[in-house]
Amino acid sequence: MEIETAMNLIWTPAQLAMFAKVVDLNGFSAAARALAVPKAAVSRAVADLEKTLGVRVLERTTRRISLTSAGRLLYPHAKHVGEETDAARSAIAKLQSPEARPLRVVADPTYGRVLLSPLVPRFLEAFAHVPLEVALDAQQLAEGAWDVAIRTRPPADGSVTQRLLGAPPALLCATPAYLQQRGMPARPDDLRSHDLLTPDAAELPEFRLLLERGAQRAEVPLTPKLAVDDPAVLHAATAAGLGIGLLPEFLCRQGLATGRLKPVLSEWAVPAAAALYALYPTALESDPRAQQFVDFLAANIVPALALPKPARVPAAQPRAHESGAH
């Protein structure tokens, strides 16, 4: 009996908290749902509370519940116990929440270095309250140890929310030395006699490159000299003069601007590179930090993927004698 009395004293605060929840939500079923416990557990807790106190605290009917006089005296104290219990639960939840640590961001190394790295300082300036932990690590990307991931080919997983950032425009390019040695293709079918460096297409029986110029379409079957799923490797092989590379435009931008690479069949459009996505666990949909970071990516990576607009050449000014001036 002494042990039973001691246990009743230990459990009384929990019983008071459940009693307050029943009163606040006007029902045992609603209280059970709010506390994520069986309805029978809530009923047993209130019954044990009444047994311990030796008085009834609730009048129960099939349609409603009401406080007894003893229940009205007890309710403010039970309410306080319940509030303190909720506060303790919230404190622990906050400790375990992602908000208690940096937002973990991981990206494929190629896209991370070119697209993400310039954006990190700008994000930290705009959102100083959101610390970041950034990794350019394909292994972490595969293992899923992240809050936000930037990658191609998102997993078909219902626990992950994905947001399309864009499909980088692609182009054909090669080094001037390669083109001088092998010749510049004049039409799509000329690609058959060249060394092609392409994304991996192992799931296809053969690699067929589609090209479009206005209403014209060309489909060229090819046997690539190199097929790889890493655009950084393709870019390195192209820059080394090993062939004509089919690459995301943003990777070639600097090489084209400096003349180290030259576009091939530039009047023909090729399919875009693999689409890029921002991924985050569905559980973080209500985390404002994750949403702020993904929104920032969408606002800044999408323009970075777009083809640069050609520079406008100012109209030539007429010479003095052409304008009639003397």
Keyword list:
alpha/beta; 5-stranded mixed sheet; 11 helices; 43% helix; disordered C terminus
Detailed description of the structure:
This protein has 326 residues and is an alpha/beta fold. It has eleven helices and 14 strands. The termini are far apart. Helix 1 crosses helix 3 (39-53) and helix 1 (2-25) packs across helix 4 (69-96). The chain is rod-shaped. The strands form four sheets. It has a five-stranded mixed sheet with strand order 4-3-5-14-6. A hairpin with a 4-residue loop joins strand 1 and strand 2. Helices cover 43% and strands 21% of the residues. The model is unreliable at 311-326 (pLDDT under 50).
Structural class call reads alpha/beta
According to DSSP, the number of beta strands is: 14
Q: What's the order of the H and E elements?
A: HHHEEHEHHEHEEEHEEEEHEHEEH
Measure the end-to-end span: 121 Å
Strand order of the largest sheet: 4-3-5-14-6
Radius of gyration: 33 Å
Please bin the fraction of helical residues. 40-55%
- The best one-word shape is rod-shaped
Weakly predicted, low-confidence segments: 311-326
Mean pLDDT: 82
- Main beta-sheet strand count, sense and barrel state: 5 strands, mixed
Count helical runs: 11
Which percent band covers the strand fraction? 15-25%
